[in-house]
Amino acid sequence: MAPYRPFLLAIALLFGAACSGDDGEDFQPWQLEPLEAESGFSLRIPEIMIPSGREDQTCWFVRVPDINNGQDFWVNKVHTAINPGSHHVNVFRVRTIIDLDPTKGEPVQVGDYQGTAVYGSDDYQNNPCWGSANWADWPLVANSQNSQANSPYTEWKLPEDVAIRFTPGEMLMIQTHYVNTTVQPAPFGGKVGINFHRSTVANPQELGTLFATQQSLRVCQSTPNPTFTGTCRFPGQVTITAANGHFHSRGKKFEVYTWDGRSISNPPEEQHFYTSNEWDHPPMMTSIERTVPNGGGIWWNCEYQWTQPIFGCDSVNEKDPQGQGDCCYVFGGNTDVGEHCNLFLYYYPKVENTDVFCN
User: Is there a single domain that holds both residue 250 and residue 162?
Assistant: First the structure.
């Protein structure tokens, strides 16, 4: 299907005014105070409407503004505000360009800054904004999956002496994914705001990030209750400070443990530090402060319950690279025919000037 484009704001407001939010409450549009340069910088994603029964995954590109006279600066609080129906909002630093190219996007205004957008709509088969290989080496900056009508905000304050480093002019990609179906409705349109608050601490420890995906997923009609596991090592001794699991509607439990880097069996319960039983609003856990020794890492599990596809198994079978005809949900960002077992994790100090990828 061809990508659709943002509607006029007046149409969006008219549409939203007629709807009610989660738990029967009226949705009150969020308010996020724009930051002046001395306090940080603010990004605002242009408002879009998502037709009923459709998804939208769009990649927005913008360069980090110069708010420190050409020098790097530090951020120790990330504050997001997201309209209901959001499946995720992820921020990455752009590195190797494959098919997802910011210069090929359409010009847009991202708050006060000129940027570009690659509109993905729900064309997961062809559009580069859906192809995870296109950002396989793009370091994670921040993420949020909280967009409840009565709680659209996520305010993440890092430990006092820890901060995110930004370089003026570096390219960021903000990926927004909205779903407007019966399982995750988005009646008010897609609207996202992010504030990055500057740190006043001199010489903070740099935050490192880990983005991990378990891509060998098969949630099939004949094996309806599988569990999939992933492991990932850190390049040195680190302290885990925040984590957020992510799967789709077949996901039932997401668990994360610290791991010694050697064992091949599930870590003991005392090493367990994160659990999510919610696929649509998975909790982001902060202030974890778990130390992982040199050579160690994390172990995560995703448990699933197969469900009958709303539109039948044909589209699910079509996506299965093994072609088994067993109505198997496999790895893929689209929520109706694909599944995920992804982990967003944050730690300090950033070791060997690198972030961690486990794909």
Answer: no
Which residues touch 169 (CB under 8 Å, ≥6 apart)? 63, 64, 66
The verdict on pTM exceeding 0.85 is yes
The enclosing H or E element of 118 equals strand 113-119
Q: Provide CB contacts within 8 A for 140, sequence distance 6+.
A: 90, 91, 92, 209, 210, 211, 344, 355
Q: Which domain holds residue 19?
A: 9-203
Sign of CA dihedral 207, 159, 146, 320: positive
CATH number at residue 342: 2.60.120.230
Residue 108 tokens, joined: 């847009």
Tokens encoding 14 = 């008219």
> What are 290-339's pLDDT values in tens digits?
999 999 999 999 999 999 998 899 999 999 999 999 999 999 999 999 99
H or E stretch covering 120: none
pLDDT band at 354; cut points 50, 70, 90: confident
So what's the pLDDT on residue 16?
Answer: 37
**Do 151 and 217 have their domain in common?**
no
**Pairing relationship of beta strands 140-144 and 113-119 according to DSSP bridges:** unpaired
Same domain, 196 and 216: no
* Nearest residue to 122 via CA among 327, 341, 282, 332: 332
Between these two residues, 61 and 352, which has the higher pLDDT value? 61
